[in-house]
Amino acid sequence: LSQLRASGKPMLLVLNKIDQYPDADRMAIYRKIRDERVKQLLSPAEIVMVAASPLVSVAVRSPNGNIQVKRRRGKPQIEDLKLKILEILHREGKSLVALNTMLYADELNENLVNRKMKIRDDSANQIIWKAVITKAFVIALNPVTVVDILTATVVDVVMILTLSRLYGIAMTEQGAVQLLQKIAMSMGGIGASELLANLGLSSLKSILGISAPVTGGVSLAPYMSVAITQASVAGVSGYGIGQITKTYLANGASWGEDGPKAVVRRILSSLDETSILHRIKGELRARLSKVEG
């Protein structure tokens, strides 16, 4: 009732089935509600008693001639309610129409905003995934240590700039690099361990790639395995960076009261890294097989 009263609309509290109580009990219930339950919310004039489907006693003669009393549904006793509704319409009809129009417009606007946010969120996720696969593909194909990681960083920066345009946030390349650095620092140990893993896998991949001519191509099989693993690990990291960037931009280029580390921790803990890793590996193998073919 408090929420309904706060909406600003006229209210009526209807007590139904009054026919099922004796007059004394009915009035006792009415006073209890009026003086205690809703005293701060409703005036006595806003409380109406009705019997929407009253039971009435009717004398019925049976086939053997005996008179029996049976209870049947009688005529609804809702005249007081009708009068109250007519009074409200007469008094506040125009205001109610205007209020309902405004509420509908507000609801419609809210639905449009939510729809736009959903579309933008879907577009952001598509941008992030495209960047993830591009990053993984570049790393997998580049046999030179460190160069593949630097190239992947460029992909991250481009992703951040693309997302900033989607969310209408003005950002320069330098700003994108600074944001990437902030995210990497906030990722802490996760970013460091991922970098070390990338460096190790990148070095191993380079050795296998260089030795391919010497081994007659035998080292290409383990090269592809290492390349896909390194690329997938980097892809998962890129996905996390993308989701963190999206949250930051959707919040008006702000980390909020909790700060970047809390935001990063919350997002990373919500990611299903195993599922993302398998998905990246699947798409990467499909693309690499086309290149080999």
Topology:
Elements: H1 2-6, E1 13-15, H2 23-37, E2 47-49, E3 55-61, E4 67-73, H3 79-141, H4 147-166, H5 173-187, H6 189-210, H7 220-250, H8 260-270, H9 273-292
Parallel strand pairs: 1-2
Antiparallel strand pairs: 3-4
Give an account of the 3D structure.
- By secondary structure, this protein is mostly helical.
- The protein has two domains: 2-96, no CATH class; 108-292, no CATH class.
- It contains nine helices and four strands; from the N terminus they run αβαβββααααααα.
- It has helices at residues 2-6, 23-37, 79-141, 147-166, 173-187, 189-210, 220-250, 260-270, 273-292, and strands at residues 13-15, 47-49, 55-61, 67-73.
Keywords for this entry:
single chain, two-stranded parallel ribbon, two-stranded antiparallel sheet, 69% helix, mainly alpha, 293 residues, elongated
Quick overview:
This protein has 293 residues and is mostly helical.
Mean pLDDT: 78
Order of helices and strands: HEHEEEHHHHHHH
Note the gap between the termini: 70 Å
Class computed from helices, strands and strand pairing: mainly alpha
Query: Nearest-angstrom radius of gyration?
Result: 35 Å
Strand content: 5-15%
Counting DSSP H or I runs of 4 or more residues, the number of helices is 9
What's the count of strands?
A: 4
* Proportion of helical residues: 55-70%
Which regions have little confidence, pLDDT < 50, spanning 5+ residues? 189-193, 195-221
Largest sheet: 2 strands, parallel
Which sequence of strands runs across the widest sheet?
A: 1-2
Tell me the domain tally.
Answer: 2
Overall geometric form: elongated
